[in-house]
Amino acid sequence: MAVRVLNVAEKPSVAKSVAGILSRNRGMSTRNGRSRYNRVFEFEYEIGGQRCHMVVTSVTGHLMELDFDDRFRKWHSCDPADLYHAPVRKHVPQDKLDIQKTLEEEARRCQWLVLWLDCDREDAVDARQVN
Known about the structure:
- This protein is an alpha/beta fold.
- Helix content is 24%, strand content 31%.
- Strands 2-3-4-1-7 form a 5-stranded mixed beta sheet, with helices on both faces. A two-stranded antiparallel sheet has the order 5-6.
- This is DNA topoisomerase.
């Protein structure tokens, strides 16, 4: 039985390139994700003798944002030193909810996850926070 592998790239052009290179453009199918900008590519592959069904998609930049609570968001709303202890809210912005839904739906059917990141410092932190 093939293992389903979800591959997530940082941008659509990288997802397309990764899928094309790994599949050698043979037997690859493509379909729309929930976001019209983030397509889903699928093909069969082998990793270390293990048959895999590869699913490749992307995000468009960072999926999540960090914000202070509303009471801390205006320039003169507090002493800047208070921001060191202010609560921070992590959320997916409205314009990226479709990408989040695609990832959730695809992840439910996959056993492995591969992240195709460009190795920026902030990406290393983001990758460690994946739960």
